[in-house]
Amino acid sequence: MARVVIRNLNKTFNDVHAVKDVNLEIRDREFVVLVGPSGCGKTTTLRMVAGLESISSGEILIGETIVNDLPPMDRDIAMVFQNYALYPHMSVYDNMAFGLKMRKFTRPDIDQRVRDAADILGIQDYLARKPRQLSGGQRQRVALGRAIVRHPQVFLFDEPLSNLDAMLRVQMRVEIKRIHDRLGTTAIYVTHDQVEAMTLGDRVVVMKDGIVQQVGEPLDLYNEPTNRFVAGFIGSPAMNFATVGIIEEAGAICAVGEGIRLKLTPPLAARLQAHVGHQVTLGIRPEDLWIASDSDAKDLSVGAVVEVIERLGSQILLDVRVGSAMMVAAVEPTVRTKTREQLRLALNPERLHFFDGRLEAAI
Amino acid sequence: MIEGAKWRRWLYFYIPLGIFIFWLLFPFYWMLVTSVRPDRELYRPWMAANYTPFWTAHPTMEHITNLLTGTLFIRWMANTLFIACISTLISLFCGVLAGYALSRLKFRFAGALGTGIFITYLVPQTLLFIPLADIIRNFRLGDTPWALILTYPTFLIPFCTWLLMGYFKAIPKELEECARIDGATRWKAMLYIIFPIAVPGILSAGIFAFTLSWNEYIYALVFLSSAEEKTVSVGVASDLVRGDVFYWGQLMAGALLGSVPVAFIYSFFVEYYVAGLTGSVKG
After folding, report:
1. What is the rounded CA–CA span in Å between residue A68 and residue A48?
2. Interatomic CA distance for residues A264 and A352, integer angstroms
3. With 0-12 CB in 10 A as exposed, 13-18 as middle and 19+ as buried, what is B261?
4. Residue B181: its chain A contacts at CB < 8 A?
5. Most-buried pick from A209, A271, A275, B273 (CB within 10 A)?
6. What pLDDT shows up at residue B273?
7. Secondary structure letter of residue A27 according to DSSP
8. pLDDT at A294
9. pLDDT above 60: residue A293
């Protein structure tokens, strides 16, 4: 078990700058998830930690050792790959034992460790089988088993659940969480799926275009995104955005856009004082919109036309048109409405987000 | 499969297949019949009343016995086997290493080198034997098995390299990366993970290389002159035709026995061989 420190990490492939000045400190026993759209540099970062990719500049420490020039085998890490990467010509047992054999463990010790790992993962019955005789979920368990038998300092996961079907993915997600709680090994997990990131990570690192956008606990990212990208990336259905102008009107500060006219509450007004006369992006999450009743302030609602109704059971998603923009509102399952119906949606003033129109940073 | 009425299946599948098989196997049948046909039937004119070209009523082992006892045929078989085995081993060894390096290692000019190796394969042997003859003479290797053992790899190595390059590329690189994280050096990862998975590919390259060297004619014809050193393909064609007399029975018996080892190897490894060519590696 060990901490992992990444300092000013850069990676360039020919003229593509894939990872830009990444700084990250992963604490001992922590589960950190790197998340972002494809091509954001998350996998490259992970592969540099693993030693599978050379480092263009910067430093990586595992424990107290700078590992920049250590080959993968000397970094005391284990990695789980998206396509499992099980050795097809070896039985499950030999797949798990391979790393131990390479490291010259004694036979009884290998046997003990493989059987312990098999117990943890519930794959005792398949030890004699070949990988091709296993289902996708079983293969992924073997891949996990191969990682945990070695008791490495750090686990690296490269989109390990992407090849599984939706049901199995949820199941294995819980499994990975359970194993991490039990073993407490430091883990770095790469995924493009924000749900996986939010559910698994002690902390989540959001990346885009090779740059770290925000690092934080899942709910902090959700509640206080530092920029528009993070706000849009984290959360499903995604946050709604609209471009509004900030104006001062009769002593009050208002956000005015197409079909939108909001009179901001004093705390919001104070935050936006400096932006009067500028365009900003307004962000509001679907669950912070509801169908306005008479008790809701007229100043904090927008007129909307229902276009699509998605009934999910636990809630209903209304795809509505506000001005010319589309928004999604997550409303109570009891709400009855029809397409093309006009209604007013109230906004939760405490959950409004504003982003600088140009820099896209949160205000 | 072909859907619909029975006659369609016959018309589009069985009949064309039958014609194809007949076309393919008839020369072998002819070889077999001729090698067991007694001489008096062999040299009977076609207009004779009892002329039966497609079968024989009196099969004989005479030609085969004569071939094995009265000629150097067994010696030629041994020569061919020795030359084919050694040159196949050399070519496989080089081909495996080169194929691995060209498909996996990133180094400058890797692409150009791969293409270069391929181009050498495209130079026809009928031209290449001229400079090679000079080299063989300079090294005083003429009329020894080494003349062939060392020249066959000139076309076998490019062949093996290219076949194996494709095969190695089809093996997911994560397997090797995983092995290296698991504690294997690149060499060990190659030895314990990549090569065992590539066995079908290596075997089919080996079978092909063996067949190519077994059947090779022009180098064997040019570089070997004494009867004892000849290979089957040259020996049968040159020494079993005496003057202008064709001993058809012996010739065909030689051809038949000469093709047995290759047929045997193919049938023995056919599953590996098919898997090797289709390059199926499942994770």
Report:
1. 8
2. 10
3. middle
4. 50-52, 72-73, 75, 77-79, 99
5. B273
6. 67
7. P
8. 78
9. yes
* pLDDT at residue B276, as a whole number: 62
Do residues A41 and A210 touch, judged by C-beta distance below 8 A? yes
Cβ neighbours around A45 below 10 Å, total: 27
Dihedrals phi, psi of A191, to nearest 5 degrees: -155, 160
Q: What is the pLDDT of residue B283?
A: 39
| Residues within 8 A of B (CB atoms), A 137-166 only | 139, 146, 150
A78 contacts on B by Cβ (under 8 Å): 181-182
A253 touches A264 (CB < 8 A): yes
- The closest of A301, A256, A308, A306 to A277, measured between CA atoms, is A256
- Tokens 């294997």 sit on residue: B184
Q: Give this prediction's pTM.
A: 0.81
Q: How close B96 comes to chain A (CA, Å)?
A: 19
Q: Which residues of A touch B174 (CB under 8 A)?
A: 81-83, 85
| E strand residue ranges, B174-260 | 241-242, 245-246
The 10s digit of each residue's pLDDT in B207-228 is 889 999 999 999 999 999 898 9
Put simply, the chain A residues between 36 and 65 with a CB less than 8 A from any chain B CB are 50-52
| Helix-helix angle B248-278:B15-35, to 10 degrees | 140
A107 touches chain B (CB under 8 A): no
CB spacing of A85 vs B177 below 8 angstroms: yes
* β-pairing verdict for A16-26 and A4-13: antiparallel
Q: How far apart are CA A62 and CA A75, in angstroms?
A: 8
The DSSP 8-state label assigned to residue A1 in this structure reads: -
Q: Which of A52, A154, A158, A162 is best to mutate for the B interface (most B CBs within 10 A)?
A: A52
Phi-psi region of B58 (alpha: psi -120 to 50; beta: other; left: phi over 0): beta
Give the residue-averaged pLDDT of B184-208: 90
B196 touches chain A (CB under 8 A): yes
State how far the Cα of B191 lies from the Cα of B214, in Å rounded to an integer: 29
- Report yes or no: B87 and B276 within 8 Å, Cβ to Cβ: no
Is the Cβ of B181 closer than 8 Å to some Cβ of chain A? Answer: yes
Question: Is A325 part of the contact surface with chain B (CB cutoff 8 Å)?
Answer: no
Indicate the pairing of strand A77-80 with strand A154-158. parallel
A108 touching B (Cβ < 8 Å): no
Chain B nearest C-alpha distance from A106 (Å): 15
* Chain B residues in contact with A132 (beta carbon < 8 A): 282
Q: For A101-159, give the DSSP string.
A: HHTT--HHHHHHHHHHHHHHHT-GGGTTS-GGGS-HHHHHHHHHHHHHTT--SEEEEES
- Partners of B184 on chain A (C-beta within 8 Å) are 73, 98, 102
